[in-house]
């Protein structure tokens, strides 16, 4: 996920959960934990949706430290509605946290 998308998601989460009332340190701590949850869910769903050949290529890209933009382009070409999947996962995590 590129930096622009990450920043947009962080801002959306801060607004939705009312985190902007907290200290910057606390915001950073909470956003880091939420971001980790989101990334794990995205990774799991991404790997599940890729075919074996694409999965091997994806893992190779991760091991080689391929930049986020290139990985995102790869996933967009290999997984139908990839952006919608990301949006759905973010919404699910936000709702899970808010309803906890």
Explain what the structure shows.
By secondary structure, the chain is mostly helical. The chain has one domain. The chain is built from five helices and no strands. The chain has helices spanning 3-17, 24-49, 52-64, 68-78, 82-98. α1 (3-17) packs parallel to α5 (82-98) and α2 packs across α5.
Radius of gyration: 15 Å
The residue-averaged pLDDT reads: 92
Spell the H/E element sequence.
HHHHH
Largest sheet: none
Total number of beta strands? 0
Instruction: Give the helix level as a range of percent.
Output: over 70%
Low-confidence stretches: none
User: What is the CA-CA span between the terminal residues?
Assistant: 26 Å
SS class: mainly alpha
User: Please, how many domains?
Assistant: 1
With helices defined by DSSP (H or I, 4 residues minimum), what is the helix count? 5
Bin the strand percentage. under 5%
Overall geometric form: elongated
Compose a concise summary of this entry.
The protein has 5 helices and no strands. With 100 residues, the protein is an all-alpha fold.
Write the SSE topology.
Blueprint: H1 3-17, H2 24-49, H3 52-64, H4 68-78, H5 82-98
Helix pairs in contact: 1-5, 2-5, 3-4
List keywords for this structure.
100 residues; mainly alpha; 5 helices; 82% helix; elongated
């Amino acid at each position: 996920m590129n930096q622009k998308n990450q920043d947009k998601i962080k801002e959306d989460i801060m607004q939705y959960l009312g985190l902007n009332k907290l200290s910057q340190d606390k915001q950073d701590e909470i956003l880091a934990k939420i971001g980790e949850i989101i990334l794990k869910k995205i990774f799991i769903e991404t790997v599940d949706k890729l075919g074996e050949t694409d999965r091997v290529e994806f893992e190779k890209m991760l091991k080689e430290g391929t930049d986020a933009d290139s990985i995102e382009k790869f996933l967009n070409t290999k997984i139908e509605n990839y952006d919608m999947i990301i949006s759905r996962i973010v919404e699910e995590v936000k709702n899970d946290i808010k309803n906890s």
